[in-house]
Amino acid sequence: MTTLKNDTFLRALLKQPVEYTPVWMMRQAGRYLPEYKATRARAGSFLDLCKNTELATEVTIQPLERFDLDAAILFSDILTVPDAMGLGLYFAEGEGPKFERPLQHEADIAKLAVPDMAKLQYVFDAVSSIRRALNGRVPLIGFSGSPFTLACYMVEGGGSKEFRTIKTMMYSHPE
Fold it and tell me: Does residue 40 have an active-site annotation?
């Protein structure tokens, strides 16, 4: 096991004394970095970037090479789990994430399957690869969408400003 060289972030989470407030940014991998843009272009698509262990590792590490950050953030997407449940995630150019098979009716929700962990192997592989690449430099943290955020995407089939379908379901069947 590699010794963690910078544990400031973890100590702060544990409410232990730290020398300074640790720094990390939610959008740390950021589409603003030229090196990210180059890696993304090599990947071909956002989802291909997420599913390529080497490239996901690369874009996770890139911000640490530019900034003095106290944690690395796993490069992935919040919708990988619903995709592994069979909803068919894809990214429409200029529109963001979409699902081929959104949950438009209560019966669709009842048929929802437990995520197929084999379909998430690329996430597990990325975590292992990133940890090796970090070599104890800083902790690796992940992220997730809230259950309601995921439900909105899964029911609406993509982003929405009004959330009509999910609101209709919730108000029609509050249980």
Answer: yes
DSSP letters of 81-111? HHIIIII-EEEETTTEEEESS---SHHHHHT
Please, which residues have CB within 8 angstroms of residue 101's CB and are 6 or more apart in sequence?
86, 87, 88, 108
Cα–Cα dist 83/159, whole Å: 15
* Given 7, 70, 77, 83, the catalytic residue: 77
Give me the sign of the Cα torsion angle 117, 120, 124, 125: positive
Alpha-carbon distance of 157 to 88, in angstroms, equals 10
Query: Is 171 annotated as catalytic?
Result: no
Active-site residue identified among 7, 40, 70, 83 = 40
Task: Answer yes or no: 27 catalytic.
Answer: yes
On whether the pTM is more than 0.85, the answer is yes
Residue closest to 9 by CA, chosen among 105, 99, 144, 140: 140
pLDDT tens, residue by residue, 71-102: 999 999 999 999 999 999 998 877 889 999 99
Interacting residues of 95 by C-beta distance below 8 A, sequence separation 6+: 158, 159
